[in-house]
Design a protein that fits this description.
Elements lengths: L30 H8 L4 H8 L14 H11 L8 E3 L6 E3 L13 H12 L6
Antiparallel strand pairs: 1-2
Bound molecules: iron/sulfur cluster and zinc ion.
């Protein structure tokens, strides 16, 4: 996912910091990053921005991916049909649709097969 720069980002407490802190390894909670976000002057801008983008990785506004999904659900914007998301396999943008829209992560049958194999064999854990 390529993040489009927004004017408020320059005022973020994370500006100029090592970005790796905001992308914790599996099993880590990113506590250091959350502490930075807790005192950030643009935290609410950051949160509003981050919940609009599906499949955005790392910690934004002090929230992990799963915490952002909870916030998206609370706001009623969690993967509603018609949302464009990035395919987890090929990276192409596609529009989710239908009853199970909130669970769609791959753009095509080929990508769905690739994803299920990848998850099954734990090549990457997302
Ligand atoms: S809330 Fe956190 S991630 Fe967002 S701009 Fe501030 S420090 Fe950076
Ligand atoms: Zn794809």
């Amino acid at each position: 996912m390529i993040v489009k720069p927004e004017p408020w980002m320059k005022q973020g407490a994370c500006s100029g910091m090592d970005a790796a802190m905001f992308f914790p390894e599996l099993g880590e909670h990113g506590d250091e990053a959350k502490q930075v976000c807790a005192v950030c002057p643009v935290q609410s801008d950051c949160l509003d921005y981050a919940v609009q983008i599906e499949d955005l990785h790392g910690i934004w506004a002090g929230l992990t991916y799963s915490a952002r999904r909870t916030e998206q659900k609370r706001r009623g914007i969690l993967n509603v049909p018609g949302t464009q998301i990035e395919c987890s396999e090929c990276g192409e943008l596609f529009t989710i649709a239908g009853k199970n829209a909130s669970r769609q992560r791959a753009c095509s049958n080929a990508c769905k097969i690739h994803r299920s194999r990848r998850l099954k064999y734990k090549e990457i854990t997302v």
